[in-house]
Amino acid sequence: MSHEAALHNHEGHESHGHDDHGHHEHHDTFLTKYVFSQDHKMIAKQFLITGMVWAVLGGLMSVLFRLQLGYPDSSFPWLESLLGKWAKGGQITPAAYYALVTTHGTVLVFFVLTAGLSGTFANFLIPLQIGARDMASPFMNMLSYWFFFTASMIMLSSLFVETGPFSGGWTAYPPLSALHDASPGSKTGMDLWLISMALFVVSSLLGGLNYIATILNMRTKGMTMTRLPLTIWALFFTAVLGVLSFPVLLSGLILLIFDRNFGTSFYLSDIFVNGVGALSNEGGSAILYQHLFWFLGHPEVYIILLPALGMVSEIISVNSRKPIFGYMAMLGSLFSIAILAFLVWAHHMFVTGLNPFLGSVFVLLTLLIAIPSGIKVFNWLTTLWRGNIRFTPGMLFAIGFVSLFISGGLTGIWLGNAALDIYLHDSYFVVAHFHIVMGVASMFGMFAGVYHWYPKMYGRYLNNSLGYLHFWITFAGAYLIFWPMHYQGLAGMPRRYFDFSIWESFKQFADLNRFISTVAMIVFATQILFLINFFYSIFKGRKVTVLNPWEANTLEWTTPIRPGHGNWPGEIPEVHRWPYDYSKDGHDFIPQNTPVGEDESSTH
Amino acid sequence: MSTTTTASPNEAKLWEGGKSPFNSEYGKVMMWYFLMSDAFTFGAFLISYGTVRFSTNGWPDSNEVFRSFPFAPEGVHAPLVFVSIMTFILIISSVTMVLAVHAGKNMDKQGVVRNMILTIIGGIAFLSCQAWEWNHLFHEGAWWGANPFLNADGTASTTNFTNFFFTITGFHGFHVFSGVLINIIMLIMTLMDKFEQRGHYLMIEKAGLYWHFVDLVWVFVFTIFYLL
Amino acid sequence: MSHSHSDQEAHNAEAMAEIKKVTIILSVFTIVELILGFWMIGMTSAVLKLTIKGTIVILMMAKAFYIVAYFMHLKHEVKNLIMTIVVPLLLFVWFIGAFLWDGSSFRNLRNNYNPYFKEQATIKVEKKVEERKATDAKHEAAATKHETVETTHEATKPEVEPYY
Question: What is the torsion angle, in degrees rounded to the nearest 10, for the CA atoms of residue A236, residue A239, residue A245 and residue A250?
Fold first, then answer.
């Protein structure tokens, strides 16, 4: 009937769309090919490069505030030429320091590790690995990027306003974020921050809906859900997390906008402002904002982490020439991480006045996350075990990810306990924990993905020697920067402080802080090396000459070296097996589109 | 796959790739997940309302606040009457929307047009009622950041009652407004025979999902603000 | 899909009957809710009030079920779609539970440690009630916008058009 007909039409339309494209390709203008492109591969590259620009800016900000932390007594005249009144006399002002910390957090969490990571790889890998010509709605996909781009531009513009960007921490807690008079950054900077984040929520919603619908509806023939590569599963759960949690942030931000501009007091309870007096706003609850924020905020860290988990699983399996150990267990742990992500948000709020009994439930739920995380770690290790490992740069970054995930994850167990958290909260221990497990680990996942799929993106290889250099310096640097911070945190050093040299108890860390800052600058310089490698190789890198350079099983390697819009020139390949048939029956690898042989041992 | 064959054979086949596991085109799947997402937006608003109400000692009595009726004689207090009319308007418009979707499934253009017009009228009527109520409350001194009503126990109230009332009903009203716009576009497309040419009225079905969702949210808003 | 004509008609009649049934159910539930609401006006027994409120919440959930299942047609969809919609909605259980729990905890904290907050909940403010009665009597709207509880309105009341 009509419904059936529609479904049928839709499929018919699909193949037509492709045929059309054969003709269209010649008519593509610069604008439709590189700017307002609806090709998922181009959109992925747009996300990646925008993310890189933000990573450089965010990284540069961290270098600037590390400069202050490492050399609190020195002045650098060049800083004044760069930042003007924000670095009078060559030293960053406290207001600028807080603005830098805030913007560093916001852009790295949302723009680099959310949009830059899942935006890039969900767009790039989903259609290629499930065997689809493009996303379910290429137009919405394009909109998703341009909303993100607009959000970026607004955030960028907030750096240049008279009163500076928002400076109350990336979590934007009220009252700092709710009252214009709270700080210079709480004026226009905060308004721009709010608009930017609202647009970002729209972008991630458009993207997420597309990813979900594509993975569910557009899989090629034979691609059952349990034949999906783990990358796709991870990106699927990432999208689900985003679709269900970002709207809660949106609600929270809308209430915040009302508090700022329309005299409400959702988050304000009896506030007294110096020079203004008692505010008429009262009766609200600042903790409410924290609940709403962390209801997104905690799933957000898994939105950042899950794509890395998925890509690392795939890359480790390919480069160990072994099937991934415990595919269903990997799937189950992804699923349980996704569910638990929604149930544990208040462990960020143990010391805010949260009901301690409620807190104890959150402790229990939080510690449960250790189980699926442990399962994943052991599965990676057992996949590596006795594998025929190829240490490509991508593989090194994947293994580095596992290392960081373990070291950062273990400190999570400390922080998840409310009793320990009372001591450790807001200290450098927390900074070390989340930078290792969420920040650096996910960056490693992203690097692994870029090195691994670069040949598919640009038809050329990245330079290997530079890749190795990039890996080893970054890997050693990550530990050298963040490991000492655990000790600082245990010694009680609070995060977000401008200058530790005036505290007797923290003076002993002056040398350590200088050491950390120095390493941070070296690591930042190494990332520039990577960028040079990246952009140089787009034009001059070694050309890919074979279809399947890593000898991998997944479908993206069955496309031409430089696939056009529509991905496969002919029919979409049909899938006959799961993606992890490595070292099976005497074959090094058996791609997913190879039919099952007659005397083959039982398939997955 | 041994795990999937345990389901009924028909449904197991749906997951084999090359077609939708839900037997519906991607737009409908997207619409459903968008509505899930929107449910979390409204959920967050209503839960915030609950949280603030639970953390406050007193709260205004809704029957004291919402007791007016347009054109009613002076001094007449009619709690719940006006809002019940609004509720029924929305329920009826939901019914006409179902009828429109149903007509669409039967490729009955006349039925679609008739019921879409009724739905649009219902939506506009609801919005007018809301406009009247807002206007009335505004003239009583209620607005964002201003609450003239005392708590039910006679103590001084904070502004949170009106803050949440205007924010949440405003956000709902915004959804109704966009629903009406969508429905008008759907009506025009129907009149232009767009769906006849496509051979299906799936767009009406998706617009219907959105409209019912708006009705669904009102069920919660109505109960929570006016009854509880 | 080749249904015979009579099949089609039977199906239609069935669907129409279902729509009618659900419309009646929704209306009846709403009317019951309203009756309960009227009954609650002026009620003093807290226990009875809470029971009625609980009943209203159950009716609300039932209405939501009928709208989603029949109007949004979810009941007639493939089971997988139903599950992917319903299972994530279970997140609301903890979402609501934890938020409200912490909300009431915040009230207890303030009542225990903030004497001013506690005191405010005991002082009755008669004035505003009288004022409202007065405005009602005069059929005049009191434009009290952006004024705090303590200020008297008489002195500053702006001229507002009679409104009813």
Answer: -170
